[in-house]
Amino acid sequence: MDKRVEIEVLNPRGVIESAPTFAPAPRVDDLAGKTVGLYSNGKDGMDRFYEVFTELLKERYPTAKTIYLSGDYLINDKNANEWDSRIDTFVYGVGD
After folding, report:
1. Domain residue ranges in the chain
2. What pTM, to 2 d.p., does this model score?
3. Hey, which of 9, 52, 83, 94 has its CA 20 to 30 A from 44?
């Protein structure tokens, strides 16, 4: 009974392919006179957070305006293109 046993050992770590990277959009130099889009996907807590955020923004930049935007977790191209003509910069928030 001299049978040989062969065991194949596999690496459980696998290979993770990295997603393509891209440079972030340039920052706005100053918020004075700018329109800031405040995006929420409707989770609890975002309304109050953005109320306070808007108050603090107005204290520091009295001429800045805010627009409340909402939608799904992932922003589609149609919404992004529509908002692009209405806002100068953008805040994406998730509540809870």
Report:
1. 35-93
2. 0.70
3. 83
